[in-house]
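explain this:
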Amino acid sequence: MSERERAIQLLNTVPDNKIAYIIGYIQGLTVEEQDEPNTETLEAFAEVDEMKQAGAGEHFSGATKDLFSAILED
């Protein structure tokens, strides 16, 4: 019996209420890893680099909870 046949045999024994876990796992295995960032990500990197060079933007130090509170106030 091949590994694929064994996997199918085991899959047939998985209860319906747990099959979603198997589907999610298999989908994760079939997605090709992307080594290159997409255009939107590259643009965001460039924007941050420009902000660093210009000294623009805001620096926050403190608890993450406080950061999110400040963001939500705006």
About this structure: The first helix runs from residue 3 to 11. Residues 3 and 9 are 10 Å apart (CA to CA). The chain is about 65% helix and 0% strand.
